[in-house]
Design a protein that fits this description.
Length: 97
């Protein structure tokens, strides 16, 4: 049963990577990275339980905090005008001036 749960988490992680690469908007990509981080926390916790290593839960909690803070930071930075303009926008602005 635990092996099936591990494979299900791996499949969800692969789907999150695909969504992060293919995602049509920036926010889809950020959400995919957040989901990948959450699934990683689940995987670390599950592997700690299977291997009988309770200290893996501490590692999973630290990873969850780092994931949360980094996603908040990227979302804050994504609100700036620098981040919103793509390279195509910059080229069109350079041609106009």
């Amino acid at each position: 049963m635990l092996i099936a749960a591990t494979f299900a988490i791996f499949i969800a992680m692969i789907l999150a990577i695909v969504r992060g690469i293919v995602g049509p908007t920036l926010y889809d990509r950020i959400l995919a990275v957040n989901m990948f981080g959450t699934k990683t926390v689940l995987l670390i916790s599950l592997l700690g339980f299977v291997m009988g290593r309770p200290e893996f839960l501490d590692i999973a909690i630290v990873y969850a905090l780092i994931n949360f803070i980094s996603v908040i930071g990227v979302l804050r930075y994504s609100d700036t005008n620098k981040f919103k303009h793509s390279s195509a926008d910059k080229e069109s602005l350079d041609k106009e001036s």
